[in-house]
Amino acid sequence: MKSSRLYFGVAFLLAAIFMAHVGAAYAQPPVGNWNTPACPPGSTNAVSIRELPPEAAQTLALIKQGGPFPYRRDGIVFGNRERRLPLKERGYYREFTVKTPGSRNRGARRIISGAAGEFYYTGDHYNSFKMIGE
Question: Which of 1, 66, 79, 104 gives a 20 to 30 Å CA spacing to 124?
Fold first, then answer.
């Protein structure tokens, strides 16, 4: 009886160590330099606010003045699950809706703000981003 408990205890400990090791391997970001901006100013992925839809300029102005925002979910944490923006700690990015004329819901357009003051635009619901320059 005592030896079977010891056996299960050791087996449990080994399984926990194995799972921690496997989980750590999967938790690593993909190879690449993820600490540099995905679309630095001056690159082909940068865009001026004048090149975006007029609704994006309105949303950006609301963000800079602190609201009020027209959509309940504006300002929520953007998780960057797609890893298309530079990797940062959770809570670094916030998302805001860019109104899409004729859409009955929030649509696909968003502005993502970073805690350091950078802004990104996506017109295709996080499939691609452009850094917004002034």
Answer: 66
